[in-house]
Amino acid sequence: MSGSLFVIVAPSGAGKTSLVKALLKEEPNIRLSVSYTTRTPRPGEVHGREYHFVNRAEFKTLLAKDEFLEHAEVYGNLYGTSKSWINAARAAGEDVLLEIDWQGAAQVHDIYPDMASIFIMPPSIEALEQRLTARGKDAVDVIARRIAGARLEMRHISKTDFVIVNDNFASALADLRVVVQASRLSRARQLERYAGIISRMV
After folding, report:
1. What does each C-alpha distance from 91 to 16, 21, 85, 97, 199 come to in angstroms?
2. CATH number of the domain where residue 104 is located
3. Which range marks the domain in which residue 136 is found?
4. Which of 32, 54, 62, 134 is 20 to 30 Å apart from 79, CA to CA?
5. Domain total of the chain
6. pTM here?
7. Most distant pair of Cα atoms in the chain: their distance
8. Other Cβ atoms within 10 Å of 26 Cβ, number
9. Interval 141-198: pLDDT, tens
10. How are beta strands 95-99 and 30-32 bridged, if at all?
11. How far apart are CA 163 and CA 60, in angstroms?
12. Do the Cβ atoms of 79 and 37 come closer than 8 Å?
């Protein structure tokens, strides 16, 4: 049986990364897909852990080889998800989680319509701006671009399967775990998982 595919979408500053780290700690059977990106590593980031950091020429070469399941340009940087890695992990029965933007999620859905998409949203634009400012990583103009990007991202909430408001971290994490469990218990996956048992009872 192929593994489940979870796709998490969120604007920058909504708390997606922190929620995913906490989820993976509590759900060790889920593997996080490490994307490729052309952006510069931030302090503390390690190649192959947060991202596969490549230059634009290397990214274009991988793209030409049809290596990416999805790819997009965000804030001037290119991002892509390895198709071969996703396929191999799912074929081995492992659950896979992707952290991508709404453009990438739409591309992945075209290939894997059985995926579960989850949108993480902040409680308000004001809260989002406060979080981005508190991080101390971006200049004022960059934060303004991220806020504008967040508004655009949230226009696509209706295209996702689940929506979680990250107002309280513990509650948002609990909601995320519920979504994961509910997806694993979907009719399609349960019919596949217990096909043998069902065939003997009906």
Report:
1. 26, 24, 10, 14, 24
2. 3.40.50.300
3. 5-201
4. 134
5. 1
6. 0.84
7. 64
8. 11
9. 888 988 998 898 999 999 999 999 999 999 999 999 999 999 999 998 899 889 999 9
10. parallel
11. 33
12. yes
